[in-house]
Design goal:
heterodimer; B: alpha/beta; 6-stranded mixed beta sheet; globular
């Protein structure tokens, strides 16, 4: 066990970071916000932390907290125009947001270090802290799922006009989902900067955007297991496919196509659904009287 | 007067869908809105629930001008629409759908408890843990109505509740609506099957190409020559 950990420690750490960003991405998609802004939020969080820690000597815990507030502020401002858009237009707007962030990071060289980025960031993160961060994130989302807010998010994703007819203020809930996505993205960006020594704009570009989206597409957008499963596939696959290293892009693309075609809900979601169906069948055979409330207690995520 | 609609005009996708429509619904009434396809029946309901915004005219509900309220605020006032085509949230369980219905209640007191809704539609209790998308059409319609009841409606707007249902199922749905009305629920019903609508309502309006052309007691309309020719057949 320990030898496995020591041999694969960087892999495990990047897996945990990918899970965190996956949750940021998932929260938006789950509420029906077609946002791909996670990379932009993580860039803001990472740069805020790096600048504060390396240049102003701000203690690390405060730097992470400020990064979180930067994420909240940015996502809240962005949620105002975003609430007026739907579907693909939201994707385009958030794509533009990420590009604007990258452009600004390149442009304000004196402040951000331009294309070279910021180096000499103390490496204070380790597997334990990252694991703690992921667990806290899971707990927060799990708590949300247990309240009516989780149900509202699911309702918004399925049909926002029906949601409005049920008395749900859709713009407020879109904004809430987006801000949650923003704060998680910024925090994990911040943690990433405290792990990798140096950051540069390219770390948060198109590749990062696709990566966190892939985690959710592979894993699933509704259940808590989704991003874990997706990030696991993304972490393990390149290792297994090492003989095909030169064709890694082809392998990743093929896997993505296969999952979308045959498991459109994602690997993690499919697993949870399968398990729930089994439980339901077992309940039906053991007890003929339905138990409507039981469901809500043992299921991890609503929906 | 619970609902008072005065001279509303609605254009929808570039078409003048409603012209100068006025109608009212009294407390405790069940009122039908009949008309052929494309007459503007659904548009009228959508204008009342604010899924579309009227260009002109005034809607007063419970003595309050709905003015520029958003759709969700109208729902929270107790004006609840059951949308056309049984729009249940297909990925969620029956129970979760009903729980979501409670959000429209806002700060108003509840009118129907979960138990009462289960009493009206026992099948919903039987299927409480089932995913709503796997229910039959009639069961989904019952769930959509039950979900609206959970939101403490002062008036229920129903858009073609029998659409696509077997005769037996639509009988069951209409029986439930009649029962709810007898217990005091105000209902405004859009229905293509004019005979069925006139049969179970007290008053009715006939909508034709965006205008109200006939109005009166449902029993009288059933004898009206124009209605018989255009909507009831021989």
């Amino acid at each position: 066990m320990m030898s496995f950990y020591y041999a694969n420690q960087p892999l495990i750490d990047f897996f945990l970071l990918a899970v965190g960003l996956g949750y940021s991405q998932q929260l938006a998609l789950r509420a029906g916000v077609f946002s791909i802004a996670t990379a932009g939020f993580s860039a803001l969080g990472a740069y805020a932390t790096a600048i504060l820690v390396t240049r102003h000597g701000v203690p690390v815990p405060f730097a992470i907290m400020i990064a979180a507030f930067v994420g909240i502020a940015a996502s809240y401002i962005l949620s105002v125009p975003l609430a007026r858009l739907r579907g693909a237009f939201q994707a385009i707007a958030t794509l533009a947001f990420v590009q604007v962030v990258i452009a600004l990071l390149l442009y304000f060289e004196a402040f951000t270090g331009g294309a070279i980025g910021i180096s000499g960031i103390p490496r204070v993160m380790n597997t334990g802290w990252l694991l703690l961060a992921v667990l806290v994130t899971i707990y927060v989302i799990w708590s949300i799922n247990r309240t009516s807010v989780g149900r509202v998010f699911s309702a918004l994703r399925q049909d926002d006009s029906v949601a409005a007819s049920l008395g749900i203020p859709i713009k407020n809930y879109y904004a809430l989902a987006f801000v949650l996505s923003g704060v998680i993205g910024a925090v994990f960006g911040s943690l990433r900067s405290l792990y990798v020594f140096n950051i540069e704009p390219i770390d948060f570009g198109f590749h990062a955007m696709v990566a966190s989206l892939t985690v959710v597409v592979l894993g699933g957008r509704n259940t808590l297991l989704g991003p874990i499963a997706g990030a696991l596939i993304m972490a393990v696959l390149p290792e297994l496919a090492r003989p095909l290293a030169e064709n890694r892009g082809i392998v990743n693309g093929a896997i993505l196509i296969l999952v979308i075609t045959f498991l459109p809900n994602g690997v993690g979601d499919e697993l949870v659904y399968w398990f729930r169906r089994r439980m339901r069948r077992r309940n039906q055979t053991t007890a003929l009287t339905p138990q409507p409330h039981k469901e809500d207690k043992h299921v991890i995520a609503t929906d | 007067m619970l609902l008072d609609v005065r001279n509303i005009w609605v254009s929808y996708k570039g078409i003048q869908a409603l012209r100068d429509v006025s109608l009212h619904v009294n407390k405790g009434e069940m009122v039908a809105l009949v008309g052929s396809n494309g007459a503007g029946k659904s548009t009228l309901l959508n204008a009342l629930s604010r899924a579309v915004t009227p260009q002109k005219g005034q809607v007063t509900f419970n003595g309050r001008d709905l003015g520029r309220l958003a759709a969700y605020q109208v729902a929270r006032q107790g004006l609840l629409q059951v949308p056309e085509g049984r729009q249940v949230l297909a990925d969620m369980s029956v129970w979760e759908n009903l729980q979501l219905g409670m959000l429209a209640q806002g700060r108003r007191p509840a009118k129907y408890t979960l138990e009462q809704v289960y009493d009206i539609f026992p099948i919903l209790q039987e299927r409480a843990t089932q995913i709503a998308g796997t229910l039959s059409g009639g069961q989904q319609q019952m769930l959509a109505i039950g979900r609206a009841l959970m939101g403490a409606p002062d008036i229920l707007l129903l858009d073609e509740p029998s659409l696509g249902l077997s005769p037996l199922m639509s009988d069951q749905v209409f029986d439930a609506l009649i029962r709810l009305n007898r217990q005091g629920l105000t209902i405004l019903l859009v229905e293509q099957n004019a005979f069925r609508a006139l049969e179970c309502t007290q008053r009715a309006y006939v909508l034709d190409r965006g205008k109200i052309v006939i109005e009166g007691a449902s029993a009288d309309l059933m004898q009206d020559q124009r209605v018989i020719e255009s909507y009831l057949g021989s």
